[in-house]
Structure formats: structure tokens, C-alpha cells
Design brief:
With 174 residues, the protein is an alpha/beta fold. The chain has one domain: P-loop containing nucleotide triphosphate hydrolases (Rossmann fold), CATH 3.40.50. The protein contains 7 helices and 5 strands; from the N terminus they run E-H-E-H-H-E-H-E-H-H-E-H. It is globular.
Length: 174
């Protein structure tokens, strides 16, 4: 593979971490979840950073961490759901690797977030109707950034590592 960095973009629960681990393994790359990288770097949970420094403080840390990771070699990076939407993060992503938007159907996002909402403070306690409305509103803002990715791939439960590698190979041949 020509490019040694693959970025996975998409909304929370799109499957970036799950498929990212599998893709990294198939490519012989390392896998890094940007949010976990930030937590380890600052010895704080994302929720604690938000609580202590607000979203602007978190987004600055996120930008700095992305810049740091953008020089790593042979790596698959799962970005946070909002990462591409702030500062010049999408430019960094596009210029330093191959970017893939895992576009996930609404029903699947709702199902995944409903099943795991206790792990995500931003959606905790929301009814299915509230959750759907929340996602629609977030995607109205975020999707134009996600769509700047090199590859747009429908992320469903049937998405395989082989599908992603085929998309990457096709992109590199263009």
C-alpha cells in the first residue's frame, strides 16, 4: 500500500474502532483510537476533559493529538466523531493519509447507540426519538466534512475488512 496512514471518519457508533482494529491487522499496521490516545496522553477521560476545559479545550487537545499522529507510519487511526469538523483537521487528514468515511444508516446508529448509550455521556438518557433527532441535527453539520474523505463506504454490519481494502486499492489506482 502506497500511503502508510489510514484515517477512519464517521459519526459515533459508525464502527470506526471495530473495523479499524481489523483493518490494521489485515494491513500489518498499528491501530490507534484518537480518543483513547488523548485519554492516555492527558491521563483524563474525554468526559473529564470536557467537564474541566469545555469543548474548546478538548478540541484543542484533539487537534494537537491529530497533528502528532499525522506523522506516524503504518497506522490506522479512528478519529473522534467530531474530529474532521474542527480547525483544519480535515486538511491534515486528507494530506497525510487516506481518509475513509464510514457512512452508517440511521437505524443502525440508533440501534448501536441505544445498546451502548451508558458509555456515551452525550446520548445517555435520550429516548429513541430524541436520539434520532440528535443524530440528524449533528449529521447536518458534520456530514459535509465527512464527505471530504477520499473514500465513502457504507458501514453496515456486513462491512468487511476485505471490502475496505478493496476500496483503498481502487482509490490508490485512480
Amino acid at each position: 500500500m502506497e500511503k502508510s496512514r489510514v484515517y477512519l471518519n464517521g459519526y459515533m457508533a459508525a464502527g470506526k474502532s471495530t473495523i479499524g482494529v481489523q483493518l490494521a491487522s489485515a494491513l500489518g499496521f498499528s491501530f490507534i483510537d484518537l480518543d483513547k490516545f488523548i485519554e492516555e496522553k492527558y491521563f483524563m477521560s474525554i468526559a473529564s476533559i470536557f467537564e474541566k476545559e469545555g469543548e474548546s479545550g478538548f478540541r484543542e487537545k484533539e487537534r494537537d493529538a491529530l497533528q502528532e499522529l499525522s506523522v506516524f507510519e503504518n497506522v490506522v487511526i479512528a478519529t473522534g466523531g467530531g474530529t474532521p469538523c474542527f480547525y483544519n483537521n480535515m486538511d491534515v487528514i486528507r494530506h497525510t493519509g487516506i481518509s475513509i468515511y464510514l457512512k452508517t444508516p440511521m437505524d443502525l446508529l440508533v440501534r448501536r447507540l441505544t445498546q451502548n448509550n451508558s458509555q456515551r455521556p452525550i446520548v445517555r438518557g435520550k429516548s429513541e426519538v430524541e436520539l434520532r433527532s440528535f443524530i440528524v441535527q449533528a449529521l447536518e453539520y458534520r456530514e459535509p466534512f465527512y464527505l471530504q474523505s477520499d473514500i465513502v463506504c457504507i458501514s453496515e454490519d456486513t462491512l468487511t475488512t476485505k471490502n475496505l481494502i478493496d476500496h483503498i486499492d481502487s482509490f490508490l489506482k485512480e
